[in-house]
Design brief:
single chain; alpha/beta; Transferase, Pyrimidine Nucleoside Phosphorylase, Chain A, domain 3; Aldehyde Oxidoreductase, domain 3; 3 domains; 4-stranded mixed sheet; globular
Length: 434
């Protein structure tokens, strides 16, 4: 087979069979397909699509491009994945909470894409912690803590590792087919008993419209279930940041507030919604209500925080992190309030614009080789519906330099709309697809 012929067929909108996609995935994994060909493939798929059969074939081909994991544990092996949003740090709360409920959570995560933050980047804002582990270390962390949030090793879905980096710099992140194959190739390779998907919709999500999010959720659920992994998707709102902090270390600090029982906002509520669905569908509890109550209890009691601490230490982080995270998390040298120029209710928030402001601060990547500054970002972001007086803060910017802070302040003022009347209250979970 020939990469050019496969790319040309995709570009023309022709059907490419499973054998051709398997060959291309193998070429991605063993480097026989060039970066230019990988980028052209991604763009052709983004423009023309693969269809259900092609999408499933690409997913399975990428899953089988490397090793698959198996687990010898005394509970269900469960996981969650988000399609990406702004201030979305649910994974860092949910993984230890599920572990405290008796599940095992081998969470293979990714880095930032486009305007959204990456779970691995957030984890690596904790000093000493490494998300790059081999299979032996991965299983040891799971044994010790019940959960681990790690990067895909070189031999887990290596075709996806290659294509994932290309998507971020070729404007092909939004492709339904590539998102499905990317997410599920890693998840299916992890040997799961159950999976819940958080499919975001709104201004801060890749999918801006409900019909787009529904199409993605359906594609993910159908593909994963047909591959033998029981899967449910929740379509959740991303018309405002999920947490009031955006940026790697700042979001970790927000996570610690939830795990210490000090924060009961949208981040906490979505953790319960996703976790309850997963524990119920995975057979751990007889009802979603019972699962939700248990999840709330393990967070309030500190059991989830204890699991988080064990995971941090097992991954090389500091022993005292959970008790005193402020001591360890990096702080930006420039911290400035961004104040409102008028009085009004926060009627809309352009989440994508806020995410891009964080990237511009250095909290994300504009090209794949960029280094991420873990300390920068936005904190205390005004919530949708809040009444803000003139001169009160819309957010605080954390920057490395004054010029960056100036640009971020301008971006925040443009992204946060104020009006005379409060907006209609948003529903956190729009739909459940199973």
């Amino acid at each position: 087979m020939d990469a050019r012929a496969i790319i040309a067929a995709l570009r023309r909108g022709e059907t490419v069979d499973a054998d051709a996609l398997k060959w291309f995935a193998k070429g991605l994994a063993d480097q026989s397909v060039s970066d230019a060909q990988a980028g052209a493939f991604a763009m052709a798929v983004c423009l023309q699509g693969l269809g259900h059969a092609g999408r499933t074939a690409l997913t399975l081909a990428m899953q089988k491009s490397g090793r698959t994991l198996s687990w010898d544990v005394d509970g269900p092996v469960l996981d969650k994945h988000s399609t990406g949003g702004v201030g979305d740090c649910v994974s860092l709360v949910l993984a230890p909470a599920l572990a405290a409920c008796g599940a095992y959570v081998p969470m293979i995560s990714g880095r930032g894409l486009g305007h959204t933050g990456g779970t691995l980047d957030k984890m690596e804002s904790i000093p000493g912690l490494s998300t790059s582990v081999d299979e032996t270390q991965f299983k040891r962390i799971i044994d010790q803590a019940g959960c681990a949030i790690v990067s895909a090793s070189a031999d887990i879905a290596p075709a996806d590792k290659r294509l994932y980096a290309v998507r971020d710099v070729t404007a092909t992140v939004e492709s339904l087919d590539l998102i499905t194959a990317s997410i599920l190739s890693k998840k299916l390779a992890a040997g799961l008993d159950g999976l819940v998907l958080d499919v975001k919709v709104g201004s801060g999500a890749f999918m801006k419209r409900l019909d787009e999010a529904r199409a993605l959720a359906t594609a993910l659920v159908e593909t994963s279930n047909s591959a033998g992994c029981p899967t449910t998707a929740l379509i959740t709102d991303m018309n405002a940041p999920l947490a009031t902090s955006l940026g790697n270390a700042l979001e970790v600090a927000e996570v610690m507030k939830v795990l210490h029982g000090k924060e009961r906002g949208a981040l906490y509520e979505l953790t319960l919604a996703l976790g309850a669905q997963l524990l119920f569908s995975g057979g751990v509890f007889d009802s979603e209500d019972a699962a939700r109550e248990k999840l709330s209890n393990v967070i309030v009691s500190g059991a989830a925080a204890e699991r988080f601490g064990k995971m941090i230490v097992a991954m090389g982080g500091p022993l005292g992190f959970v008790d005193n995270p402020e001591r360890y998390l990096p702080e930006a040298p420039v911290i400035r309030e961004i104040t409102a120029t008028q009085t009004g209710f926060v009627s809309a928030i352009n989440g994508e614009a806020l995410g891009l402001a964080v990237v511009d601060l250095g909290g994300g990547r504009q090209v794949e080789s960029d280094l991420v500054d873990p300390a920068v970002g936005l904190s205390d972001v005004a919530t949708l519906g809040a009444k803000i007086e003139k001169g009160q803060p819309l957010a605080r910017v954390h920057a490395a330099r004054e010029g960056q802070a100036d640009r971020a302040a301008s971006a925040v003022r443009q992204a946060v709309a104020l009006s005379d009347t409060p907006p209609v209250k948003q529903t956190l979970v729009h739909e459940v697809i199973s």
